[in-house]
Design a protein that fits this description.
single chain; mainly alpha; 86% helix; elongated
């Protein structure tokens, strides 16, 4: 009776599979970085725009809008960086603890997986930088316009265009329909701007009333 032959993978095949797995992990991680950057930029754009429009609804002064937007951009970037650092650090600790519990013995696999783990410092820096990049859009739009009403309109229009662009990029990365995603992001941005502007607009009367007194 013939004994069954067992085929063992050759070293070349093992290296090829390991390289393909590592490249696949790199692509996934790169896609996550790009997606996080777009979301951070969208967050910085919308939150700074809404804050500046809210201040503009209650105060006609240009520098009050710019300073409030700048303060919001810095505070938001710091908040995003801290949150991302804590989140990624926790994820890294969980993945490392999971590897330890399962008793993984392959040093080469451990090295490949270690390289694909997220870096908390890099994640925090990327998150803060993307938030600031998004916040630049409304700040730059307001810096060179003196008339209050025109400044409000320009900020809203330019920010709406940027929101649509970010929505298109996010849709291309995620494979979702571009028009639907862009419309969803744009509509959500309009709602946030309208709520902030509308809630603070009544304070404009008190501001002008205090000036006349």
């Amino acid at each position: 009776m013939a004994s069954p032959h067992t085929t063992e993978p050759c070293p070349e095949q093992t290296i090829s599979v390991a390289n393909e797995t590592y490249q696949g992990m790199e692509l996934v991680q790169r896609g996550q970085w790009i997606r996080a950057a777009i979301l951070g930029a969208n967050d910085g754009l919308l939150s700074t725009t809404s804050l500046m429009l809210g201040i503009g609804a209650a105060n006609d002064d240009k520098w009050s809008m710019i300073l409030s937007g700048l303060a919001g951009a810095i505070a938001g970037a710091c908040s995003m960086a801290v949150g991302e650092f804590v989140s990624v650090s926790t994820q890294r600790d969980i993945e490392q603890a999971s590897k330890t519990d399962t008793g993984m013995q392959n040093d080469d696999d451990d090295h490949d997986k270690e390289n694909t783990l997220p870096n908390p410092c890099k994640a925090a820096s990327a998150s803060a930088l993307s938030f600031l990049c998004g916040a630049v859009v409304p700040l730059a739009s307001a810096a060179f316009i003196e008339q209050h009403l025109i400044r409000i309109v320009v900020i809203a229009v330019v920010s709406s265009i940027a929101l649509a662009v970010f929505g298109c990029f996010g849709a291309c990365l995620g494979g979702s329909p571009v028009r639907i995603s862009a419309a969803r992001v744009l509509f959500g941005g309009w709602v946030a701007m309208a709520i902030t502007y509308g809630l603070l607009k009544p304070f404009d009367r008190y501001h002008h009333g205090s000036d006349t007194d």
